[in-house]
Here is the input.
Amino acid sequence: MREQLLPTSAIIGMGLGRSVALVTDGRFSGATQGACVGHVTPQAYLGGPIAFGEEGDIIKIDIPDRRIDLEVPGQAIEDCKKTWRIPDHTKLEKGTLLERYRRMVGPAIRGATLE
Here is the structure.
């Protein structure tokens, strides 16, 4: 799980700290600045609502309630679901460590260990 200080520093350095949030499955150090949400389970990969976001869509981040919501009409999400497919990982050779990790890893909040 990579430390996210470099991307958050870039966001702040570019003057985007008030308009950009970083949402990642990575972790943060105590030096991180800005709106950052880490240890996110990869729900987009599994077909969760964030998978259907498009450029310009609004994503509402409610940190106290631990929620991330795609703010688009329900019908738009349903339309996207009709053509959505799980990302193709055929390049990950069956039986390799990376393929096993992708298939069996638990959420970051529990240490991203194999389950």
Summary: The mean pLDDT is 80. Helices lie at 5-13, 74-83, 97-104. The longest strand covers residues 59-62. The two ends are 16 Å apart (CA to CA).
